[in-house]
Amino acid sequence: MPSRVGSTGSTPRSSGRPNQLFRNLNSKIASLPMIFVALVIFLGGSIWTIVYSFTNSRLLPRANFVGFDQYERLWASSRWIISIQNLAIYGILSLIFSLVVGFVLAALMDQKIRFENVFRTIFLYPFALSFIVTGLVWQWILNPDFGIQAIVRSMGWETFEFNPIYDADIVIYGILIAGLWQGTGLVMCLMLAGLRGIDEDIWKAARVDGIPMWRTYIFIVIPMMRPVFITTLVIIGAGIVKLYDLVVAQTSGGPGNASEVPAKYVYDYMFQAQNLGQGFAASTMMLLTVAIIIVPWAYLEFGGRKRG
């Protein structure tokens, strides 16, 4: 009897292990195209780009390896340095202002104001436009001949100057204004969804304890909205790295190279200058920058959670 019990007791465990392979089989089959795209298109394309960044490919890829020559030429280019500086300025300010303005607007909308749906639609509407349309619209708005500068001067302030489109020192801030105008509404909606997920009892307890509203937001609500902030940061970061069409539509990288960004640098060298090796090197540096930011965050976020 004991031996039979032991043998019968071990049978379900041994037979249950193969069954794990067939659990949620439909979901696993449905995920095969995504896995294929991730491995073949994304990972394979990235590896192919990195390998050919060490070649002197021109119009067509060719396996004529030249070591780090393309990278030395890249970092010796003033145009590339300017593009990195512009992306850093745009990225840092875009992160700060998008989060702050988006959260403030969401907090105001969360006060159950009248015509909330109308205001939410107004703030979110710019996100429905393409970056090309946004760039052209703000090119007109910031044009000194008939834009903000001309309107203010027509009102009597003849010495007023606001010309970010043609001023190389502040042109990146004109692009930043257009980017914030388009993307802040989405951040507001994400933050508003997070605020609506906060339990009403928390607000009641804070009011009973006499905690000011601003302290409730900073020390209680914002820490509880950590997943929302992480999601928002990922979305904003993705938009910053691939910044291209807004610049092309608004300034075309000018005046000169003052508003150059890495994505435009890659496009120009790969498709206009017909220098694939240089474009591949710039693409690899963009990929490396993303990896430096994403990998430590992913390790701290998911690795720490797994250990916990």
UniProtKB/TrEMBL annotation:
* Keywords attached to this entry: Cell membrane, Membrane, Transmembrane, Transmembrane helix, Transport
Q: Where are the transmembrane segments?
A: 29-51, 87-109, 121-141, 170-195, 216-241, 280-300
What Pfam families is this protein classified in? BPD_transp_1
Q: Key word Transport present in the record? A: yes
Question: Domain named ABC transmembrane type-1: which ranges?
Answer: 84-299
Record's InterPro entries?
ABC_transporter_permease, MetI-like, MetI-like_sf
Cite the Gene3D superfamilies for this sequence: MetI-like (1.10.3720.10)
The listed locations are: Cell membrane
Membrane topology value: Multi-pass membrane protein
Has keyword Transmembrane? Answer: yes
Tell me the Gene Ontology biological-process terms attached to this UniProt entry: transmembrane transport
Chief location bin: membrane
One GO cellular-component annotation of the UniProt record comes to:
plasma membrane
For this chain, the family text in UniProt reads: Belongs to the binding-protein-dependent transport system permease family.
Q: What is this protein called?
A: ABC transporter permease subunit
